[in-house]
Amino acid sequence: MPVSPKLRCKPLEPAFRVVLVEPEIPPNTGSIARTCAATTTPLHLIEPLGFRIDDRSLKRAGIDYWHLVDVHTHPSCAAFEQSFPELRLHFFSSEAERSYLDADFQPGDALVFGKESVGLPRELLRRHPERVWGIPTSGGVRSLNLSSAVASVLYEARRKQRALESTWLEREQSE
């Protein structure tokens, strides 16, 4: 089978970090992990997780790119924040009053998303009101799918840092 060229761009240094607080749905986290692998973005998972990320579970789910993702797990939000005390955090909520398009993203920032059923803990949002952003929608749904939200925000943050401007076609080696 012929292999077509792939459009590539340089990794952003320092990379943004995607943080999922207590993710519940394995396919969402799998899609987010794929986006992180495609953008060389570290993925931080805050426990408890609604699924297992051991080799057997990943293989059964057909996730064959997990080895390409820089994954870190943390027992709590507090533990994550203690590990990175200087890190700028951006929180995303369907209840935000400001658009993510207005966010002042900087390389190395953490993009923090909540669990699918209820989003981020309210006390976390109250502690950081100047860093809470939303994705505007015009339809009747309450929010985007978590994977879609992460991809939208991550690519906008990268675009703002001009990380998508220098591109080239790369031919993959056929086996």
Strands of the largest sheet, in order across it?
Answer: 4-3-2-6-5-7
On the 0 to 100 scale, the average pLDDT is: 90
Order of helices and strands: EEHEHEHEEHEHE
Q: Percent range for helical residues?
A: 25-40%
Q: What is the count of β-strands?
A: 8
Total of DSSP H or I helical runs spanning 4+ residues: 5
The class by helix and strand makeup works out as alpha/beta
Binned strand content: 15-25%
Oligomeric state of this protein: single chain
Low-confidence stretches: none
User: Distance N terminus to C terminus?
Assistant: 10 Å
Write down the Rg. 17 Å
Biggest sheet statistics: 6 strands, parallel
- The coarse silhouette is globular
Could you explain the architecture of this structure?
Helix 2 links the parallel strand 3 and strand 4. The termini are close together. With 175 residues, the protein is α/β, with parallel strands linked by helices. 27% of the residues lie in helices and 18% in strands. A six-stranded parallel beta sheet has the order 4-3-2-6-5-7. A two-stranded antiparallel ribbon has the order 1-8.
